[in-house]
Design goal:
The protein is mostly helical. 58% of the residues lie in helices and 0% in strands. It contains two helices and no strands. Helix 1 runs antiparallel to helix 2 (67-99). The protein is elongated, with a radius of gyration of 17 Å.
């Protein structure tokens, strides 16, 4: 089995703090996890952020939440979703490059 090589980022350097936006920095413990585990945890965090934003929006409609809290939740969900889309695009690009390689 071929092991994927990840780019050097603060999330996979021992002792370095993650500085990425959104909720994906909670999955920065890359060492010891497989690539699929990291992607699974990241996607679950994106879903959790979106769900939280929806709950805050509903609470605001009911008059139970302040506008500032709703905006923060929605912006966090948007950052998480944009990060997930960027990761997806990089994976697709890498797959296409590999599929074009001569054997």
């Amino acid at each position: 089995m071929i092991t994927p090589i990840s780019p050097i980022t603060s999330g996979n350097i021992p002792g370095a703090a993650s500085t990425t936006g959104g909720g994906l920095e909670k999955t920065a413990s890359v060492f010891g996890d497989s690539f699929s585990d990291v992607l699974t945890a990241s996607s679950r965090q994106v879903v959790a952020d979106i769900t939280q934003a929806e709950k805050m929006s509903m609470a605001a409609l009911e008059g139970k939440a302040e506008t500032r809290d709703v905006v923060e939740a929605v912006m966090s969900a948007e950052r998480s979703l944009q990060t997930a889309i960027a990761i997806r695009d990089k994976i697709v690009t890498a797959y296409l490059e590999i599929s074009r390689m001569a054997i």
